[in-house]
Each structure stands twice: as C-alpha cells, then as structure tokens.
Amino acid sequence: MRRIFSSLAIVAVAAAFAFAGASSSIDYSRPEAWLARPGLDSVASLVPKDSGYSNLAASARADVFYVHPTTGMRKDVANVPIDDPQALATARVMLMAQATPFNGIARIYAPRYRQIALHVYDEDETALQAPMNFAYEDVRRAFSYYAEHENQGRPFFLVAHSQGSNHALRLLIEDIQGTPLEARLVAAYLPGMPTPRRSFTEHLTHIPPCASPAQTGCVAIWGVFAEGYRDFAGWESSNVYWDAAIRRWRSPKGMPLVNVNPVSWRENDAATPASLHLGAVPFGVAATHFSHPVARLVSARTAHGYTLVSPAPPAGLFDDGGVFSRGNYHVFDINLFWVDLRANARRRLTAFLMQRGEAKYPLIEGPVTASATIGRPFRLQLAVRNAPAVFSAQNLPAGLHLNDSTGEITGVPTAPGPHAVVVTATNTAGASTAELALIVDAAVD
User: Mind listing the domains of the chain with CATH numbers?
Assistant: First the structure.
C-alpha cells in the first residue's frame, strides 16, 4: 500500500501557523530545537475555540514529552531537515492537534527532529533502517536532554503518534524501562502504529499495555478505522515497529496486535456507544479546524487489533486531504478522542500521585466538562481526593455558585456559551487547580 500525500487541507491550515525555521544543527539546550517547551511561545498552549477548556500548564505538576508524526513530504531526502518550511509548519499543526489534550495537567516538551520523509515508508525494510535509526537518535538525544535537565523528578507522560510512536516505543524499551525514569512514567499514549503484543511479552516486560482507565505505568496504543474496513494487511505491510531482539525495524504484518478502546480505555472487545464518547475536536476543514469539541459522535470497539468507529466522522468536521484511503482515520487517531484523552490523562495522573503517596494536597478528579441549560436548575459535585478542602472558582457563569466547603456547584445559569471555569481546592498541605469546561445552552421550548 503506497501512502500518497495530497493534503491541501492540512497544508492550508499549516500555513497559518508557519514561521521561519531555525538552523538544522540540533542543540537541545537551545529553544529553537523545540516545537514546544516551557517558556517558548507555541501552539501547544492553545485550546480549541469555544471549548471552555483552559491551559493550566504553568501550574502543572507533570510533564508531557511529545514526538510528532511524519510531516515531511520531500522526495529528494530520506531525513527531512528540521528547518524545512513545509515539514515544520505541518508539525506545528499536529502539535496543536495532538499535544494540547494535555495542557490542562502538564508542561509540554516537543522536540524537532530529523524525521524520515513520508516516501521512505514505501521503501523496503533494508532501505528504511538507516533513516529510521538516524531520526531515532535525534529523538533519543532530545529525551535524554529533557530527562537530565528538565524533568527534575516530576511525573511525566510519553505521547506520540505514527512515526513518533515508532520512536517513543523504542525509547521505552531502551531508555526508560529499568531506569529511575520508569517509576516516574504516568503512562504512554502511542497511537497510530500497529504494535505487536510480542513487543511487551518479550521486550517491555515491566511496562505493560494499558488495559483499564486508571492504570499507570502502562502504554495505551490504538489505531482508528471505519467499521467495515478490510485492508489491515496492507496497512501493516506499510508500517514497521522496533524489534529489539534483532535490533531492526520490521513489519508487524500478521502478528497479534495491542489495542485499547480510547473511550473506555479498556483492552477488551466490548463496544462503547456514542453516548459515552466525550468529544472529538475537528481537524482539517478551515471553517471548523480546532474548534468546539463534538461529543457523542462515534461508537467504538476493538477488532482485528484496531479501534473501529461508526458512523463516519462528518466531512464538514474532518478531512485528511486524501492522505489515506477511505475508512482509514489515521490522521484523526487523537482528534477523534481529544476530550476522552484529556479526561483520561487527568484520571491517570491522579491515580499515579495517590498510589505513590506524593500528594497530600487535594486532587480534583473531575469532571473535566459539564453542560447546563439557561433557566434550569444545575447541580454538580466536584470529586476530590485528600479532603477536606476549601474550594474556589473563577469564571463561573452568572447564576451559579460554588459552596466553598463542599465543592458543590448549584444554581440556575443565565449566561449562555462555553465558560472556562477554573476550580481550586486547598488544604493545609497545599492547593491544586483544575479546569471545568462548562457549556451553557439556550433553553429549547
């Protein structure tokens, strides 16, 4: 299966976020070697328009190390320079789409690296080895810099997509498992690449696949296709994984794969109805790109080692520009479950901190989103660990009030629209802050 890039939609969106590239000499101590890091102005700080979500990275107690997917389309090179304008612009679009689910709970680090160009995936495995290893060395050095100079003992998530997931899985095998970093790994989210179960049974024996929604120290892997999609063999033939036994990139074709349902966050094959889907963020259509999340959009189930969804994502909200074949939703692996991922990351971080006894201050568990209607009574109880606590809130809509001793929000809202509510819980050990995207709808007669 050849991958053909003709994505006018993505390139058009990318152009809006492009700016001059830096030198291709990579020194990860320098800000220009990164797409995102604390103190660097980047699209990783954004939240979708009209969503009610908040960027709380400045007060976050965790980090995300994010590795972007393939964004370089040049056919004259095997590894794309980090200052290639098209690759850099599209990398920023993917950063905005895929790293922002975490900016409510974590600081985001995203290195630039000399990725393999898209056409290299069409080459045979022998031709692919050297370019993939070259790209991986950039990612490894960036992560080593982060671990040595930036992490400072903080919990962290490893997040990637597609080619980025190839490199991130190898990082887990070679640089995280069996080191002090393993104890700080909250979870890894590595969608977009068919990953054999043998990667875990033989190589990642200490870091298992995620099988439940509050599990920590695990790896969540999924790939999204339409119900009725059939060419999984072709997809597997055009992709690779790192086989640590032979130290070689190879096809996973025909191997049993790992897959989690990104709504239930369980590895079983139980379907989740659309009513449980927390929300997708539109991608690729200029009028709707990175705008208001849409909940209850798709049902999802695991089959054939993948996540199958229905109905098809609406064309007015999702467009990959013809990058992949009909029914292959690879570009949308994260966007289709943007809110589900945001909520799950908070849940795993809370579980991580509680399990390790590292947090005596209150931990606000949720929810991350809620809905209300003008003129109708509203009630919401904030869930918190390490109570009792004193609560406060910013940006509550008119008509709603927070009980500062119970954490209950009640009242009758009078102001429509999305409200980016930020709640704080404080006890004698300290305070924590969390978002609540509160959408107030107009009353319907």
Answer: 8-345 (no CATH), 361-441 (2.60.40.10)
Based on DSSP, count helices (H) and strands (E) in the chain, helices before strands: 7, 20
| Nearest partner of 236 among 211, 213, 254, 253, judged by Cα | 253
Our CA dihedral for 138, 140, 141, 143, rounded to 10 degrees, sits at 120
Q: What are the two backbone dihedrals, phi and then psi, of residue 129, each rounded to the nearest 5 degrees?
A: -60, -55
Average confidence (pLDDT) per 10 residues, the chain, 445 residues: 38 40 69 97 96 96 98 96 96 98 98 97 94 97 98 98 98 98 98 97 97 98 97 95 97 97 95 98 96 97 96 96 93 98 97 89 92 96 92 96 96 95 96 96 79
Nearest-angstrom CA–CA distance, 260 and 302: 7
Residue 9 sits at the vertex; the CA angle it makes with 335 and 139, to the nearest 5 degrees, is 55
- Residues paired with 303 in a beta bridge: 306
Counting Cβ atoms within 10 Å, is residue 75 exposed (0-12), middle (13-18) or buried (19+)? exposed
Q: Across-strand partners of 309?
A: 226, 300
* Token pair 């927390």: residue: 278
Which of 338, 321, 274, 331 is CA-nearest to residue 100?
338
pTM across the whole model: 0.94
Quick one: the chain helix, strand, coil %, rounded to 5? 30, 25, 50
Which of 93, 437, 43 has the alpha carbon at shortest distance from 282?
93
- With vertex at residue 236, the alpha carbon angle to CA 215 and CA 163, rounded to the nearest 5 degrees, is 65
Nearest to 238 by CA among 224, 226, 252: 252
Residue with tokens 């349902």: 261
Q: Which of 6, 73, 83, 88 is nearest to 43 (CA)?
A: 88
Element (H, E) at 231: none
Task: Give me the phi and psi of 434, to 5 degrees please.
Answer: -145, 160
Q: Each residue of 175-201: b (16+ CB within 10 Å) or e? A: bbbeeebeebbbbbbbbbbbbbebbbe
Q: What is the pLDDT of residue 8?
A: 40
Closest by CA position to 423, among listed 36, 22, 54: 54
What does the block give as tokens for 198?
């043998």
